[in-house]
Write a structure and sequence with these properties.
Layout (H helix, E strand, L loop, with lengths): L2 H27 L9 E8 L18 E9 L3 H29 L9 H17 L5 H65 L5 H18 L2 E4 L6 E5 L2 E5 L2 E2 L2 E4 L13 E4 L2 E3 L3 H36 L6 E2 L10 E2 L17 H8 L7 H41 L3 H34 L7
């Protein structure tokens, strides 16, 4: 090895260790940056020149130093894929639980403002009428109470229907906002894909851009259950939702909402998310919202309607003409249209002057296994069971998501202790290379300045 080759070897080590320290510093600086993936410098020895026969040495001489082969991004595609799936599942379960919790909260059960209490007050008013003198002042007062309590029950059902309609509108608006965000994120992912391909084409790494893109993909996983698939021909990824490509390399597609803009009671048509005009099997939050618009909230309205229909059918059937409960639009009684607009004077206690059989029979409806109270209890209990199951599912999927995040972080995140050890190693290697360069410089100084002049 020539003296000048020694300088070259030392220089290559200085440059390599400096690059390694720069990468370690970048890792430390971004240890708390969300989505940052740890980087590592890969190095390789440089082979030396082949010795000439005149050197009396066969084969290769001493190597020529060290070089950086690449700055690797320590990603874990398997762990990242699992996190994307777990994120979508957790978002779906959370959205479902949130809507059901809102529905259950509207019941106000148990409580004085709940339908159970108002039905009880109405049956109590009928019982009071059965105990009063139908032809006297107490009977007149009891009829006024019956009319008032009956309208309170009708108002409670209308309020429940109105809350359901309002919730439907809120969820529909949230889905619209989600759609806009998804399309914006998809465009950003496609833009980053193109920038990554361009950057890597120049030979420079694009790791920070890839980190930004993967964070956007995980956001898409939350919103629509998206998963990513690396392209074999470049550093870009495709983003897939329900088997269809939302992002195809550098090209982004857009999703839209198909379905009614307003709720039409229990018969509300289905709401779907479309991609390119075709229905898209979304996951994540979007799946929870479309489920709420298509199934959960129309089902809730149907539950209110069943209670309203049972109330009108059984009370009107016992009372006879005129009906106690009617529809404001003159059609079939639903939770949206039910009213008790009967005049107190038209309320009948019985079929004769002092007969109170009708009022007594009304009071007994509270104990009927097929009465309005039973229908309401079934509705409330069924909803409570769905809420409980949804909460359990939301907790389980959130735990699975956190576990998947932990696995990804452990394999791709920055460990400060490890980086400090690496940084110390690179520092010592740099110092060693500097010492080699100093030694070679001293050797050259001896040869140049301290040897005799040839021919003296």
């Amino acid at each position: 090895m020539s003296t000048f080759q020694g300088l070259s070897i030392a220089l290559s080590s200085l440059q390599t260790q400096r690059r390694a320290m720069d990468v370690a510093g970048q890792n430390v600086a971004n240890a708390a940056t969300p989505g940052y993936t740890r980087q590592r410098v890969d190095t390789a020895a440089i082979a030396g020149p082949r010795a000439s026969l005149s050197d009396g040495v066969r084969g290769w001489t001493t190597g020529s130093g060290v070089t950086v082969t690449q700055v690797a991004r320590l990603t874990d595609r398997l762990a990242a894929g699992r996190l994307e799936v777990a994120t979508g599942d957790a978002a779906l379960a959370s959205a479902r639980a949130g809507v059901l919790s809102t529905v259950e909260g509207g019941f106000a059960e148990p409580g004085d403002s709940g339908l159970t209490a108002r039905l009880g007050a109405m049956w109590g008013a009928w019982s009071g009428l059965s105990e009063a003198d139908p032809l006297g002042p107490t009977g007149d007062a009891a009829r006024v109470t019956v009319a008032g309590r009956s309208e309170e029950v009708a108002a409670s059902l209308r309020q429940g229907a109105a809350r359901t309609t309002s919730t439907w509108s809120d969820v529909r608006g949230e889905l619209g906002t989600l759609t806009t965000e998804v399309n914006s994120l998809a465009t950003s992912v496609a833009d980053l894909n193109r920038l990554i391909v361009t950057t890597e084409g120049t030979g420079a790494p694009a790791h920070e851009l890839a980190d930004q893109r993967d964070e956007l993909v995980r956001r898409l996983s939350t919103l629509v259950g998206a998963t990513s698939s690396p392209r074999s021909d470049s550093g870009a990824v495709d983003v897939v939702v329900g088997g269809q490509k939302l992002v195809d390399g550098g090209t982004a597609a857009g999703i839209a909402i198909s379905g009614p803009a307003a709720m039409d009671g229990a018969s509300t048509a289905a709401t779907t998310v479309t991609l390119g005009g075709s229905a898209l099997a979304v996951g994540g939050t979007a799946a929870g919202l479309t489920e709420a618009l298509t199934t959960t909230l129309p089902g809730t309205m149907a539950g209110y309607d069943r209670v309203a229909a049972a109330l009108a059918t059984q009370v009107n059937g016992r009372h006879g003409d005129p009906a106690v409960f009617t529809a404001t639009d003159g059609g079939a009684v639903t939770a949206t249209t039910i009213t008790a607009s009967i005049a107190p004077a038209d309320i009948k206690a019985g079929n004769g002057d002092r007969d109170v059989s009708i009022a007594a029979g009304m009071a007994s409806l509270s104990e009927s296994t097929a009465g309005p109270d039973a229908a309401w209890r079934t509705f409330v209990v069924t909803t409570a069971g769905a809420v409980s199951a949804a909460d359990v599912r939301a907790t389980a999927t959130a735990t699975a998501r956190d576990s998947a995040q932990g696995v990804l972080t452990s394999s791709t995140g920055v460990d400060i202790d490890s980086e400090m050890v690496d940084l110390l190693t690179f520092q010592r290697a740099y110092e060693g290379a500097a010492r080699v360069m100093t030694a070679v410089d001293e050797m050259l100084d001896t040869l140049i300045n301290r040897t005799g002049v040839v021919g003296r």
